[in-house]
Amino acid sequence: MKKTSCSATASRVLAVVALAAVLAACGRGEEETTATPASPPAADGKAADAAAAPAESPDDKRMANAVATGKVAAPVDLKYDVLAKPDVGQPFEIELALLPRLAADALEIEVTGIPGLTVVSGGVSRFEGITAGERYVAKVLVQADAQGIYYANVVAKMITQVQTEARTFSVPVVVGAVPAAQKTQPQQDASGQSIQSMPAVESGGAQEPAKK
Question: What is the DSSP annotation of 31-63?
């Protein structure tokens, strides 16, 4: 009777140990299964970052980046395209695509020309409920008085309840055939004035005239 009881006890102990091992393995499997779905938040984070970037558009291939002038303040970029070959005295369109990087209550655009380039229509535009990464397109009709290189100045204002930030861009426009002398013009100096060689002039005194 004692031998039989010992055998039965040993069998029960082995069964309990085996059951514990099985339960431990199942517990590890459940923990691994529970820990696996940890990647979606990272994916969501990437999606949020992508939403803030400007959306890709087929128009980007034909449009050029406008050069920002002055201090960079408003979080917005500008692309542009001249829709037709400009002719002297004939109105032509400039397409502007503004790409805000942050949301805002409104986006205002004001376009002005340098002397010789007149804004015919579309000089002021406004968009409401600005979303980061979206494209906001405006068209401006301008006219040049003569052949040459002109610049349209674009001021973009990002407006919120807290503040208004502005960023200024320069859009170059070539009207007609640029004269050869203008094409071969030397680079401009720091003040923006063209550097030209001047003919020698005799002076009445021994001293050379002071350079300005």
Answer: HHHHHSTTSHHHHHHHHHHHHHSPPP-GGGGT-
